[in-house]
Specification:
Elements lengths: L11 E2 L10 H4 L4 E3 L12 E5 L6 E6 L6 E5 L10 E2 L2 H7 L7 E11 L2 E14 L4 E4 L11 E5 H17 L10 H4 L6
Antiparallel strand pairs: 1-6, 2-3, 3-4, 4-5, 5-7, 7-8, 8-9, 8-10
């Protein structure tokens, strides 16, 4: 995959580096990512733990402010989504970005059981200043990037959702809080 990382953070963000192209130290992330403005529609959802550690391509943002809230997220390169968008100066300043290489993009995923589908919110990606663990959700042109883009559908989606549900049942409640309805419904907080 071609690496189109721009020279300036206010220029284009290209989905950032695929996991295979990152140096090993860039895979690991400390426990907490801070979103000072919260997420869209949920301004008090500010502190999250990104799991698993080390995070590579797909995982969960677990709220540290509201136990029980978790959002499935994925690297758009892992989803084979080729993002090309510009961050405005307000976003660059809020994220304290000085180099585009420090930005990492994550998409929020929603899981639907009937009909079985996994959808990605491409219109509202999470941008993270990776070295500073500082995040911001941005809104992109929904005509170019849909709010609900199908990633996996049908039997494959059913299998993934069943596996995730099985993993949740096997995890002790003290280690993984139950899912919050707003975190799994499309259009709620993402």
């Amino acid at each position: 995959m071609e690496n189109n990382v721009p020279a300036s953070p206010s220029q284009r963000v290209a989905g950032v580096l695929p996991a295979a192209d990152r140096a090993p130290e860039e895979h690991s992330i400390p426990c907490e990512i801070y979103f000072p403005q919260g997420l869209i529609g949920c301004p008090d959802w500010q502190r999250f733990q990104l799991t698993p550690e080390p995070f590579e391509a797909c995982g969960e943002l677990l709220s540290l402010d509201h136990p029980g809230i978790g959002l499935m997220v994925a690297d758009p390169a892992w989803l084979r989504i080729n993002y090309h968008f510009e961050l405005d100066e307000d976003d660059v300043e809020a994220l304290r970005l000085t180099r585009a290489e420090d930005a990492r993009v994550l998409c929020i995923l929603t899981l639907h059981r009937d009909p079985a589908a996994i959808m990605a919110n491409l219109a509202g990606p999470l941008i993270i200043n990776w070295p500073e663990r500082l995040g911001r959700q941005v809104i992109l042109d929904h005509h170019s990037y849909p709010l609900r883009a199908p990633v996996v559908t049908g039997e494959a989606a059913s299998a993934v959702i069943a596996a995730l549900a099985g993993a949740d049942r096997e995890t002790p409640e003290s280690a993984a809080p139950p899912s919050h309805p707003a975190a799994s419904q499309p259009g709620k907080g993402a």
